[in-house]
């Protein structure tokens, strides 16, 4: 076995990185013969080269004793201009930033942590990409393979592969126990992270003693990864589906994340079927909100018009949706649906409901084919009465929103003064963000629920809300992507005081890495969504409200570069603060005191059901009565 000094390894590593960079990539360097096809290099360096070949150029890291070798490789390859490495203060923040970067900009990223607690924190945060279908690489340090005894921060049990078992529950995972298995590991990760329909997190475990293991005479050709293929249109009974649509009286199209960008085909389908559309929170903008057939969001915290359409439809056409509990009121949202046409690239999701005609394939191509079938029908599909009653409900929903904006302040017991309501703050800030083309991130809680009820997007890709995992702190951490993207963008993170305190390190890391955006912090001194749930279910709240008032402005002012602003107690003051934040060249924070209480004007209301707490018995009974 060859033995190289640290200096020799560094010199050859620097040379190799510069050759790849100057040639424009590994393939080009090999083709020009400037780079030897067979070479000696460590596992970590080969891994980084392989990930570069897959387009992974951004690394969000919290390095530790379990990741020193890969950290050194990343330093060298960053100096060569091949990757960008961002050192952060929280593995959870790193995961959220990587998810946001891929979600908003389509840029691939990897999260690098040490062994033990750091890996566990990133694992917890990987719920976001797992729930929302976002491809992210996770590279965790792991216990050594020679089993010399407990490694500090490993799972302290006398068994192998503890972290591999943990990560395998969350998603696909691979341990590089054997360095020369790298090709298989890269291929396995590529299939998951770049899956065309249901991407997700991939966990690559790097034992501390294999990271720096020398692979002699390694063939660099092994580092290529083919791109996953796309499905075609579904093979199925299109004629039967068209007949169901023609003979039904009230067609509902429910669109999830998988159909969010079906665009023109969705609009065309609505026209041909005479149906109305309801979307999940992550599919806002799939059809312009201004389209008369768009009833907005539906489910446990849906809109009046969205839930009316769900509960009165007789045919459900599900398009690219997982049917999360809040999305369909824990399977009780469709009280009168008798048949389901389910268009999905995932077989299990396509068969979620009873009485289903599944069309399993690419959503866009399948809709195109179904539209062609409907166009061939000679009999026009007249559902004007259905459209009329739904339009009346949408008008009523607009009146409810207008009433909130017309009464923007209420007296609050916590603040002992008149303060702004969440709907008024959110409507004002959403309109401001839209006017300047800002991306909107929503954190979990009341801010999230009121936010997706109020969002009226005309195009997809402007509002991002983690309603799959509902991870507190996602929105503020996602702001990091605004400055670390290849093409930076301006974003607003809508958050509550509960979510913000989960991930306040964005104040430091955001300035450090050039975040461009505003944290709009709605402060009611509690986790309002849970306080409200407790009061609705049990008429008392417990352990969800503060007894102290935190000065978030002083907190933000303590970080150089952060512009801290008071949002005031009127919409004019809030608008002025937003304008000031928008003119700031970096990160800003606006704290707004908001109302919490019994007044219906304080929130957008709840119009559906949910299988939680003491509501479970009735919700479950209704679900089985429906039998869908």
What does this entry look like structurally?
The protein is an alpha/beta fold. The chain has three domains: 6-223, 3-Layer(aba) Sandwich (Rossmann fold), CATH 3.40.50.970; 238-395, TPP-binding domain (Rossmann fold); 414-596, 3-Layer(aba) Sandwich (Rossmann fold). Helices cover 41% and strands 18% of the residues. It has 26 helices and 22 strands. The strands form five sheets. A six-stranded parallel sheet has the order 3-2-4-5-7-6, sandwiched between helices. A six-stranded parallel sheet has the order 11-10-9-12-13-14. Strands 18-17-19-20-22-21 form a six-stranded parallel sheet, with helices on both faces. α9 links the parallel β6 and β7. The chain is globular, with a radius of gyration of 26 Å.
Write the layout of secondary structure elements.
Elements: H1 6-23, H2 26-31, E1 38-42, H3 43-53, E2 58-62, H4 68-79, E3 84-87, H5 91-105, E4 109-113, H6 117-125, H7 127-132, E5 136-142, H8 162-170, E6 172-175, H9 182-193, E7 201-207, H10 208-211, E8 214-219, H11 238-247, E9 251-255, H12 264-273, E10 276-279, E11 294-297, H13 304-312, E12 315-319, E13 339-344, H14 347-350, E14 356-360, H15 363-375, H16 384-406, E15 409-412, E16 417-420, H17 422-435, E17 439-442, H18 446-454, E18 463-465, H19 474-478, H20 480-484, E19 491-496, H21 497-500, H22 506-512, E20 517-523, H23 528-538, H24 552-557, E21 563-566, H25 571-582, E22 587-593, H26 616-626
Parallel strand pairs: 2-3, 2-4, 4-5, 5-7, 6-7, 9-10, 9-12, 10-11, 12-13, 13-14, 17-18, 17-19, 19-20, 20-22, 21-22
Antiparallel strand pairs: 1-8, 15-16
Helix pairs in contact: 5-6, 11-15, 12-15, 13-16, 16-17, 17-18, 17-25
């Amino acid at each position: 076995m060859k033995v190289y000094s640290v200096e020799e390894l560094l010199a050859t590593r620097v040379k190799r990185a510069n050759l790849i960079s100057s040639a424009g990539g590994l393939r080009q360097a090999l083709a020009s013969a400037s780079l030897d096809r067979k070479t000696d290099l460590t596992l970590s360096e080969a891994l980084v080269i392989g990930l570069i070949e897959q387009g992974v150029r951004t690394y969000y890291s919290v390095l530790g004793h379990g990741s020193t070798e890969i950290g050194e490789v990343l330093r060298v390859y960053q100096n060569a201009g091949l990757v960008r490495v961002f050192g952060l203060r929280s593995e959870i923040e790193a995961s959220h930033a990587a998810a946001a970067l891929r979600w908003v900009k389509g840029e691939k990223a990897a999260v690098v942590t040490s062994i033990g607690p750091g890996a566990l924190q990133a694992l917890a945060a990987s719920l976001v990409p797992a729930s929302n279908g976002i491809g992210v690489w996770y590279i965790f340090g792991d216990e050594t393979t020679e089993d010399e005894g407990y490694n500090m921060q490993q799972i302290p049990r006398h068994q192998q592969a503890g972290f591999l078992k943990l990560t395998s529950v969350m998603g696909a995972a691979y341990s590089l126990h054997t360095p020369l298995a790298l090709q298989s590991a890269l291929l396995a990760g590529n299939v998951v992270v770049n899956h065309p329909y249901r991407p997700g997190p991939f966990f690559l475990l790097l034992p501390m003693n294999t990271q720096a293991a020398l692979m002699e005479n390694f063939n660099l050709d092994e580092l290529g990864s083919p791109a996953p293929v796309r499905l075609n249109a579904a093979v199925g009974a299109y004629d039967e589906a068209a007949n169901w649509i023609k003979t039904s009286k009230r067609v509902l199209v429910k669109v999830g994340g998988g159909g969010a960008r079906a665009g023109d085909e969705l609009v065309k389908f609505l026209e041909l079927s005479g149906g109305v559309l309801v979307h999940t929170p992550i599919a806002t903008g799939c059809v312009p909100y201004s389209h008369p057939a768009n009833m907005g969001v539906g489910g446990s915290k849906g809109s009046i018009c969205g839930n009316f359409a769900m509960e009165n439809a007789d045919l459900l056409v599900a398009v690219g949706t997982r049917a999360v509990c809040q999305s369909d009121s824990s399977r009780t949202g469709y009280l009168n649906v008798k048949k389901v046409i389910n268009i999905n690239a995932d077989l299990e999701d396509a068969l979620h409901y009873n009485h289903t005609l599944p069309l399993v394939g690419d959503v866009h191509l399948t809709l195109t084919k179904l539209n062609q079938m409907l166009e061939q029908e000679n009999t026009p599909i007249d559902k004007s009465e259905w459209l009329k009653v739904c339009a009346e409900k949408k008008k009523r929903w607009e009146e409810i929103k207008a009433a909130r904006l017309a009464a923007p302040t209420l007296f609050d017991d916590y603040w002992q003064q008149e303060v702004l309501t969440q709907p008024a703050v959110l409507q004002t800030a959403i309109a401001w963000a839209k006017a300047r083309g800002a991306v909107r991130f929503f954190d979990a809680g009341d801010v999230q629920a009121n936010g997706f009820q109020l969002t009226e997007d005309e195009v997809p890709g402007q509002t991002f809300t983690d309603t799959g995992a509902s991870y507190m702190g996602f929105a503020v951490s996602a702001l990091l992507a605004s400055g670390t993207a290849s093409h930076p963008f301006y974003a607003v993170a809508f958050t509550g005081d509960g979510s913000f305190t989960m991930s306040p390190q964005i104040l430091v890391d955001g300035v450090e890495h050039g975040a461009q955006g505003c944290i709009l912090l709605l402060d009611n001194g509690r986790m309002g969504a849970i306080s409200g749930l407790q009061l609705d279910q049990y008429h008392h709240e417990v352990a969800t409200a503060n007894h102290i008032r935190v000065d978030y402005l002083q907190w933000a002012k303590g970080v150089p570069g952060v512009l801290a602003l008071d949002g005031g107690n009127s919409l004019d003051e809030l608008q002025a603060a937003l304008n000031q934040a928008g003119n700031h060249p970096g990160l800003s924070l606006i704290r707004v005191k908001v109302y919490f209480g019994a007044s219906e004007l304080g929130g957008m209301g709840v119009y559906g059901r949910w299988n939680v707490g003491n509501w479970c018995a009735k919700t479950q009974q209704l679900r089985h009565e429906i039998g869908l």
